[in-house]
């Protein structure tokens, strides 16, 4: 039987799944990714590192001890639009200090890859359809309250 190559999304979800399952690994994952993106001379490697940081922030928060240091790091070093996205995700994580059960959805993968915010179309009572901005930890209830 022939081995099929792993998709990029599957390979990138390994550290996310490890961090979701094991709270003790989370800060180590963030520190390793920060170390890999700090003054990285390879643009592709740097982009992948920031993409993974963004996906990790979509999946689980850093510890309260690491939080302020990671926020400072992304504020000072965020590359190619990831600065704003990672800051927003960290500020949201500071409010909602919970981890997810599953890795990011396809919508999150694509928005993190492009370093843009997410939005879903909502139909309002006047039948007008408008995009409503959402975050990784947005629930159905909070989405309905935002409209």
UniProtKB/TrEMBL annotation:
Spell out the GO cellular component terms annotated for this protein, sorted alphabetically and separated by semicolons.
Answer: cytoskeleton
Residue ranges annotated for the MyTH4 domain, each copy included: 1-113
Which SMART domains does the record associate with it? MyTH4
Full protein name? Myosin 15
Organism equals Caligus rogercresseyi
